[in-house]
């Protein structure tokens, strides 16, 4: 074919088909490479590997573009809400008023957890990390709803609407309950009358003797945070969800695996790591310049957390939106001078002028400012990555569905280049030196 790639290998020419995506992204189709040539591809960290065809999210990392189902993130941030965007990501289209109402009703219906499930929290020691609790309890949902977790994709898909609503609604209830548990506080039940974000804040911060009522600015800052995290194509946690789903595992098991993958500091854990970094710079009385020098030299394993991205070689558009919404949220909370924010601004300014960061195209990513927003609205630090997980749930669900409903689904099973010892004979214990 005219657009095929030609590979010259050991004196032979091989023709490999090419694929062009709807936004012009080009790929060489290597699915038959090993059968044809005996070679596999090697791509540490999968930086050049397209693992699937997907119609959920488009990113142009060089131009700093992010679109959910074709809609620019800036328009959604300005005009939509997390719940509506969750519907869009999962179903592929914006809901009409009836669909929007039904989706809201399903989320309300599924907001409480099963009373037996509440006992599971008791088994965790005080101080347990809420990410560990979240992952364990999400996975356990399959035990409470066995008809939604058969591990037979066609059967699980038949009840997908219910399973998706349970996952989106309960992730927030479980998150709030794990926080209450970690602080030894009594659980607060969801209220049917409250919208998604207000209900979460109510479960987090109300007391049996007093309701917590957020200002509209705080609720909308949370709404924006969740919306901006709703999907981000083949990142570490979403690829994990797809990998688990490819074996036929149910939605709850697959998304619980996503939570574990999200936890690390190079992925979702970066929002916590940014605050830790800013706090330590503040505690040391550094204006940021010493830290930047260490990050450049890699001294002490330091990196400028919240900077750099595998895909964006430009300003992360989510970071731009969060940064722009800052002043409104801080003003509504009466926060005038946040020393950590001042350090973050100084670090950003210095890094964007520094040749090390400029030449490597390292710009602020979503986590650089998102931790500061969470902190400003009163979310405790060990909950930051949990907040990311709540926001990412619609994306994980949509990717699970894409895998489960693909009639040509193949189990994810990469190959490797073995570099270990060649065959050798076993040596009995007494003969080993
Ligand atoms: N500070 C200092 N140097 C960095 C940083 C950083 N934050 N990020 C990358 N570099 C350097 C890196 O040392 C390497 O330098 P050299 O070419 O001299 O060896 C070069 O830039 C390329 O880095 P890389 O590690 O090959 O890039 P990657 O695509 O594998 O890693 C990343 C991407 C996000 C893991 C990395 O940039 C990083 O560790 N950033 C800090 C953690 C962070 O903010 N993570 C959140 C990502 S956004 C939210 C999400 O989607 O999870």
Overview in brief:
The chain is mainly alpha-helical.
Index terms:
single chain, 433 residues, Rubrerythrin, domain 2, Citrate Synthase, domain 1, 2 domains, three-stranded antiparallel sheet, two-stranded antiparallel sheet, 52% helix, binds carboxymethyl coenzyme *A
Which structural class matches the secondary elements?
mainly alpha
Examine the coordinates and then state which fold CATH places here, giving the name of the CATH topology of the largest domain. Answer: Citrate Synthase, domain 1
Ligands, ions, cofactors: carboxymethyl coenzyme *A
Number of domains: 2
In N-to-C order, the SSE pattern is EEEEHEEEHHHHHHHHHHHHHHHHHH
What is the alpha-carbon Rg in Å? 23 Å
- Determine the CATH superfamily of the largest domain: Citrate Synthase, domain 1
Q: What gross morphology would you assign?
A: globular
- List the strand order in the largest sheet: 5-6-7
Q: Which band does the percent of strand residues land in?
A: 5-15%
The count of β-strands is 7
How many distinct helices? 19
Q: Which CATH class of the largest domain?
A: Mainly Alpha
CATH architectural grouping of the largest domain: Orthogonal Bundle
Distance between the termini: 61 Å
Low-confidence stretches: none
